[in-house]
Amino acid sequence: MSLSEFEIFLKTKNLLPSTIQTYMGVLKIFISDIRVPVDKFQKKHLVNYLLYCKDTKNQSAKTVNLTGTILKEYFRFIRKEDITDFPSMKTEKRLPFVLSKEQVQKLIQETKNLKHKFMLSLTYSCGLRVSEIVSLKVKDIELSKKILYVRQGKGRKDRRVMLDGKVIELFQKYTCGFSLDDYVFNGQYSGYHISKRTAENVFIQACQRVNIQLPHNIGIHCLRHSFATHLLDSGVNLRIIQELLGHSSSKTTEIYTHVSDYLIKGVDSPIKDLQII
Does residue 44 sit in the same domain as residue 128? Predict the structure, then answer.
């Protein structure tokens, strides 16, 4: 069976185009690397390839596990059988990288390009994923209700997010003198939105201008982390934050409790009741 047949199969599952693109990209690299005919695939080939990804390509546990998930799905499709006892690497538990409010303010203030300023402001103020910000359509911004609609976000879910008056004012300045077509952030060609790479570069360059040192592999997504953490710091209920972020599980949102200063400062140490001085 060809990769194109598997791609059609993935489309019947109603997966997001970006998810299908990820699947196909991983499989094309796998087939190129392993050089074994499709009808000869065995479990040992997949396991050895994952070890190759880990030890030779030095990929993270998260990346290797994602590759494993995709390979299992492909194997099930071509061989009509499941792989049992498939290895999975233990992933590291890392806290999200968060900017302070002062850093976010400086980042936006020092961005003079109105399109870029509005992009960074909207990403932070609404807690958007980079895929959501680049594909945002004009019709999804409802100024009269001060609401932004995120259509078919991760997991094919729609959600609504509040739209701050300052962001609305910035949007009006950004669009003053011209009308947008379909997308809020048009790409180089008519009918296309900007790429995720472009949005990442806008963020990274803005950080460089104000001397914000970003750890390796940290990008514009940290504005979403900052949005959630700053809401939690200000006392917003975790359930509301979960809804604003579009998380299916509260466990995903709970990670922000580990980086919130508000929660830490609101708890007294048991030593407070002891006479130690």
Answer: no
pLDDT at 66 over 80: yes
Catalytic residue among 23, 49, 74, 256: 256
Active-site residue, from 117, 193, 221, 225: 221
**Residue among 179, 178, 196 at smallest CA distance from 136:** 196
Q: Is 129 a catalytic residue?
A: yes
Per-residue pLDDT, 5: 87
Residue 221 bears catalytic tag: yes
Q: Does the structure show a pLDDT above 80 at 122?
A: yes
Query: In what side-by-side order are the strands of the sheet with 147-153?
Result: 141-142, 147-153, 157-162
- Among the listed ranges 12-21, 134-143, 164-173, which one has the minimum average pLDDT value? 12-21
Is 256 an annotated catalytic residue?
yes
Do the domain assignments include residue 159? yes
Which member of 116, 159, 230, 247 is catalytic? 247
Catalytic-role residue among 129, 159, 193, 230: 129
Identify whether 247 is a catalytic site residue.
Answer: yes
Domain ends where: 28, 48, 79?
79
Report the interhelical angle of 114-126 vs 165-174 (nearest 10°). Answer: 150
Active site residue 23: no
Q: Is 151 a catalytic residue?
A: no
SS3 16: coil
* CB atoms closer than 10 angstroms to residue 192: 12
Annotated active-site residue in 154, 160, 196, 262 = 154
| Structure token pair of residue 134 | 């680049």
Q: Which residue is listed with tokens 């960074």? A: 120
| Domain residue limits at 224 | 101-264
